Amino acid sequence: MIHHSETDILKERIKGLQHRIQQLEKDGEPYAEMFSRFLDLFCIADITTAQFLKINPAFSNLLGYTEEELLHCSFLEFIHPDDIEPTQRVIDENLKAGKKVLNFANRYRCSDGTYRWLDWTSHPMPEKGITFAVAHDITRLKRMETTLTENEMFIRTVMDHLPLGIAVNSVDPAVTFEYINENFPRLYRTTKEAISEPDRFWSSVYEDPVFREKIKKQVLDDCSSGNPEKMIWEDIPITRKDQETTYITARNIPIPSKGLMISAVWDVTKKKKTEAALQETKQLLENTQSLARFGGWEYTLETRALIWTDEVFRIHGMDEFKNPVDLNHAVSFYEPDSAEKITHAFQNLIQNLEPYDLEVKLKRADNKTIWVRTMGRPVMENGRIVKAAGNIMDITDRKSAEERLRQSHELLSNLARLVPGVIYQYRLFPDGTSCFPYASPGMNDIYEVTPEEVVKDATPVYGRLHPDDYDQVVHAIQQSAHTLQTFYCEFKVILPRQGLCWRWSQAHPERLEDGSILWHGIISDITERKQAEQEKEKLQAQLSQAQKMEAVGTLAGGIAHDFNNMLSIILGNAEMILEDLGSSNPVAAGLHEIHKAAERSADLTRQLLAFARKQTISPKILDLNTAIEGILQMLRRLIGENIDLLWLPGKNLRTVKIDPSQIDQILANLCVNARDAITDIGKITIETGNAGFDDAHCRENEGFRPGDYVMVAVSDTGCGIDKKDQENIFEPFFTTKPREKGTGLGLSTVYGIVKQNNGFINVYSEIDKGTTFKIYLPRHTEKESPEDRKQIEQKVLKGHETILLVEDETAILQMTRQMLERLGYKVLAASTAEEAIRMCQSPDTTIDLLMTDVVMPAMNGRTLAERLSLSRPRMKSLYMSGYTANVIAHHGVLDKGVNFINKPFSKQDLSQKLREIFDS
């Protein structure tokens, strides 16, 4: 028995293979030329050894290897490691079994180390141990598939993390949903199951049947118009029994081709409550893609023969065993426009040797229209064209994918326009650099940079961050990158056009293969909300201050009322005793001191009433320049000779309506404070002027109110007021002076007077530089001439008329009666309203004037006067009180035509008031 070595066996097998190749070449001579010029990759391979036996030049052109390099190796050596096992399985299970293989894809290594995807169709001949195979390059299609997959992942991630409600639905009029995200039912305060049932949307969202029908009609009418501008519904209330009402905004974009619309909703409850915008978008994208298929063709100019591969027949929907079609028949498959393009390109190829590459529409034999890519090039021999050869590929799937991709981009753009903010991708590289691979157009508003400016470098965005928040934002990004937890952050930015703004961002991170972190997220403008929150805090502080002032004012008013009654008794009796004793009596000096102390107490009481805004005033239309000039001499005596008083009156000053005595009080208090702030010598300046403020100015300056005003300013060169004390200077009893020099009511009184006259006051001060108080009183718009302040002759005026005196305090009743009788008047005294009514019942009793206390038990003075006027219409009235009562005044301002005298009053004050009434 002869034993051969393995080398001998291999030599015998190679010799057999060479014989088979020679036989194949002999048998295939008619096709050799076509084989060598075939544009697809065509080969003959050994099924057992996986060795190429024959390849066409297209292999070398695509992979970059020489024919010798490919023929002397197993084709498994060129296959991507991940594809070797599937390829071997196809060989074992299909080719060795004689089964035809269609559309099997794997990756082949090129000479430069890259890989190309090839799609194989193999026809095996197991009895000969070989297979015939055709492949075409589908690398571009694979890349497109990868791109679409990445886009789908991006869109899905954004959809999953946007705090918006997104739905795709029809309205006809039943609301049927094709897609609902998690936030959509939550914002409508219902469930996905409830609204998923046809036409359950209306009843599950809107509880009130009246509102339900109203909003349903509006939505259906707007949707039927097809106008996107009408399909925006803002501040829709969502009510639930025993629950707080929330508000949403809904915007919709119609998709007419599908009879659907994209609905985006977001919660605007905070905006509704605070007059301020949160908000975001989601995207919906559906893309599919399938492998492309190629076929080859060749046209011989001399014989006019057109040869198609089997794949070309399949693309045309024809039986591959039928006789080949001629050129005219082939062109007839194309739609008219496409046929014209093909004809022109083919003629240009034949005549001018110019290759072509067209994408056109083709109608198959089964009347199905598809998209194909057809390419052609000239085949030259001896410098002249002899043939035209080319490929045709069914690109319907690719075209569909491109169309879906276009729609998805359009959908993304539409959603991005709906969201009040920016949708973005932010990428942080391992070296610390970063960029925004994607940003919606809202980037222009959020950061005032274009998406193109930050697509490669995020530095312009970092440059917009407020210095106080820069470290916070960077730290939050680093934490999210480290933990891969969702990034949340509120921060400030400084923008060239918008100035200081607030932003809120939320983004979800993922780690990429290269170690970089990619966030998918949104950024919203929350400036209005933050401003509203700050304004709310200011208003709350102002409310607390107002409540405190009101409480102290109520207490002060009550004390002043009772104190005035006591002072009336002291002053009145002291005045009459002094009158009886004469100035030479030794007791007179002591009584004078009692009288002066009571007057000072009355002044203090008037300060309390001014602070509490309960003093009775009689406003007059004034020119402040004239009013101030009238008291300048008194103010100079008040501040002393070591301080200069500078008066700067404004020109063309507007008029105001205020009680002249209140101007005296304001200036006296402010000048005394200014005097005390100046240690030695200094200057006090009083100036006036017109002022006007609009809404924008008042928003930027706390305490200011819109309108036209007259300004009075008192400035000094004193020690100034520190910031802490400035917050408290208008509080009652607050003072920075020593206890023996200040009561703490001066500025409180000024504040009360200004507020009572609907004005406002501001203080500007710097330590060791001085203080300025600016008072703004509303401009008076009535067309009247200002009244000059009348100087009343300082003397006691007597009378003879009959006066009905009504006072529930016995001591005051007796004291006032004595005053009136000493002035020559006849007095009828009553301690109650009922007693006064009985006195008036006798028609023989003559009464010229009713003088009554305002506040009395059982019946107030105003009501008593009205009762008596029914029977005595000619009787005049004079009211007296320790503080303003609403029965004769509103907000401290006397009703028109009302005569009033403040308690305590002197005999002289009373005499002049009575003659003013009787002689008018």
Question: What is the gist of this entry?
Answer:
The protein has 920 residues and is an alpha+beta fold.
Q: Output the number of helix runs.
A: 30
List the strand order in the largest sheet. 2-1-5-4-3
Compute the average pLDDT.
79
Q: Report how far apart the termini are.
A: 161 Å
Radius of gyration: 50 Å
Structural category: alpha+beta
The count of strands amounts to 34
Poorly predicted runs: 276-292, 784-793
Helix proportion of residues, in percent? 40-55%
Strand content: 25-35%
For the sheet with most strands, the description reads: 5 strands, antiparallel
Assembly status:
single chain
Can you offer a commentary on this structure?
The structure is a single chain. With 920 residues, the protein is α+β, with helices and mostly antiparallel strands. A five-stranded antiparallel β-sheet has the order 2-1-5-4-3, with helices on both faces. Helix 23 runs antiparallel to helix 26. It starts with 5 loop residues before the first helix and ends with a helix.
List keywords for this structure.
single chain, 920 residues, alpha+beta, 5-stranded antiparallel beta sheet, 41% helix, elongated
Ordered list of secondary-structure elements with their pairings:
Blueprint: H1 6-27, H2 29-37, E1 41-46, E2 52-55, H3 57-63, H4 67-71, H5 81-95, E3 101-109, E4 115-125, E5 130-137, H6 139-161, E6 165-171, E7 175-180, H7 183-187, H8 192-196, H9 201-205, H10 209-225, E8 232-238, E9 246-255, E10 260-267, H11 269-274, E11 293-300, E12 305-308, H12 310-315, H13 327-332, H14 336-352, E13 356-363, E14 369-381, E15 384-394, H15 396-418, E16 421-428, E17 434-439, H16 443-446, H17 459-462, H18 467-483, E18 487-495, E19 499-511, E20 517-525, H19 527-581, H20 587-612, E21 620-622, H21 624-629, H22 632-639, E22 643-648, E23 656-658, H23 660-677, E24 682-693, H24 695-700, E25 707-716, H25 723-726, H26 746-756, E26 760-766, E27 770-778, E28 802-806, H27 810-822, E29 826-830, H28 833-840, E30 849-853, H29 861-871, E31 876-881, E32 889-890, E33 893-894, E34 900-902, H30 907-918
Parallel strand pairs: 22-24, 28-29, 28-30, 30-31, 31-34
Antiparallel strand pairs: 1-2, 1-5, 3-4, 4-5, 6-7, 6-10, 8-9, 9-10, 11-12, 11-15, 13-14, 14-15, 16-17, 16-20, 18-19, 19-20, 21-23, 24-25, 25-27, 26-27, 32-33
Helix pairs in contact: 19-20, 19-27, 20-26, 23-26
